[in-house]
Amino acid sequence: MSDAKQNSPENAPAPESLENKESQDQAKVGVYICYCGGNISDHVDVEKVRSRMENVPGVAVARTNMFMCSDPGQELIMDDLRSGAVNRVVVASCAPSLHETTFRSAIARAGGNPYQYEHANIREQVSWVHHGDAATDKATRLVCAATGKARLMQPLEPLRVDALRRGLVIGGGVAGMRSALDMADRGIETVLIEKSPYLGGGVSRLGKLAPYGEDAETVVRDLAARTLSHPRITVYCGASLSSYGGYVGKFSIELSTTAAEDEAPSPGQYVPGKGVGGPMLPQNIALETGVVVLATGFSSYTPHTGEYGFGENQEVITLPDLLQKLSEMKDEKGGQLHLDGRRIRSLAIIHCVGSRQIPGVHEEDENGHLNEYCSRVCCSASINAANTIRESFPDTSVYELYRDIRTYGRGQEEMYAQASANRVVFMRFNVEEPPVVRRIAGEYPLEIEVKDELTFGEELQVPVDLVVLATGMEPAPIHDLVDMLKLPVGADRFLLEVHPKLRPVELPMAGVFLAGTCQAPMDVGEVSNAASSAAVKAVSLLGKGFVELDPFVAEVDLQKCTGAGACVDACLNDGALKLVEMEVGGETVTRAEVTPALCLGCGACVAVCPENAINVNGWTLRQYESMVDMIISDVAFEDSGEAKEEPAVEEETAA
Amino acid sequence: MATVNSEFIKELEQSGTDTGAECFNCGTCAAICPLVSDHFPRKMIRYIQIGAEDLILKHAQELWRCLHCGLCTQTCPRGANPGEVLMTLKRRVVAEWRRS
Asked: Per its UniProt record, what Gene3D superfamilies does this chain match (chain A) (predicted)?
């Protein structure tokens, strides 16, 4: 692949030259062991591990520090590298997912090769699960194994892949528009696609936003106007992804039309409850993009028939329905609320409908799913709606029937206090004894019977004109996209980030980002923050015009490869390995070739090759053998009078 | 079984200004009350919120065990003024007794 020449066969060094280089460059391993402020040292005798490591062949220095990841800790390593005392580094500390990058970049800053580095996890794998001498011994063996590998490590160069300075945003809601604007403002050509003919997504169906009362229509109109007029943003409504391929920096995408053009409003026109019309995709097109931002949004839970009387009584509606009706009558004030020509003397909002469901208590949907998560925004939305009604129509009583109130954000607790002052009556029910909605023949059409925990288990009858179900958020139905992009999906069916704190808007596949409620329930403010952070990640990835990837990818030894093709069959990522015709030693033969940018570095090919002709850089078979040899070797335990054999792996084994 | 009556709180306002509208049922007042057990005075405020006048009259004896020491008002984290709410209730109950 022309974008990533690093591992193309003609550049692959011959095995002889590798070993020549190794003998010239005598391995001097520095071992750096972390106390982790007691996290490790409370259970592992760190100084004992250090003194044992001094016995191990190839180890030039062994040092300890209270926090290796701190600046002074990193300086220790950098000083040794600069003075030439070491040329390979092993750090024994926490999980590599936390600080491997920290130490690799410290090595690079000191002028070393960041890939001549090995990490031993003696916190999660040792001090958190063992104690006493056993912990110290296990730590010693893990660090020994790391030094065994480190001695055989070659300097590697990161893979460099050309990156198009172009982004694709999927989804035209607030998250999608926010991401597109942030990327475009920073110089990235952005294509925004939306399945429906309208921009605005879920927010277009809302009225006054909690907790500060911004008007949803104004928010959507403003964002859409800026998106549609931005010179670097191309908007295609009525468009969806029909094919997807490539890799970070150069994804190949095909878009197809999803709606007839005559259904669409004219671009820029606002349609209440739907959003702002955008330009329709005229015909199926293909394009290339450097990054993909997913902003596919959410859908609202639909109660099943009979759930709190829904579908059986026209007076039972969902909160999104109520909000839409309220937003259409925002100028009306005073007296009683009237909806669809009916006066509403009192209404009750029932919380947690389709959220926090419990197996055995709640009914599963047709696919057997339960929404066991909290939808986060429905409490605030319900209380905001209650306040709006009590303040605009003071003769309408509002009851809130809840399991727990979670008004978790800034300004939202104040909204709850305001609801109390507005005389919204709260009632708390137990999930085992939920309220019962029934039709009555009397002054009011409906009555709710609830066992209220706030009144010490008193059975209360609440006569109402309207029952509103505060339905939770569910991920949008994007099964086709999940299959096409092989997206990771969590137990809650929302898209799953790499790590909620360390990499909150990224997916394991490089160059694909998450923005907004496709990831989890969020309110509009949180959606905007998430979308901006996805945009910033995307921009910083594409900023240099190329992307550097870790070089831990498969490499074929053409001297050994016989073109058997077992590796191609085993490969998990289509296109990463293929058989090609090439010239080797003056003959045209069939050999395996790696496309480094697509290789996942999983090693499935290594396991099946009958000739041992393929290796994953940074994790070669020889390095693994050396690690195993060091684990079973007792060379580090000389001080305890145990066996003193040299490990089987030696420089001559390598040569 | 009690029927919720949202009109009661409006009637009660004629007997005094404090009706405990700010109360969100944390129970601090009940925990600190030195004289009356059994969720007093929170229970009374809750009866006001749901408009259960019959339950207030049923438990009216408890109102006269309150000495107005003011601890509930002092500790209420929401400023719902439980001590004053009890005064309002006493007036209302006395008026009710006179009427019957």
From this structure: 3.30.70.20, NAD(P)-binding Rossmann-like Domain
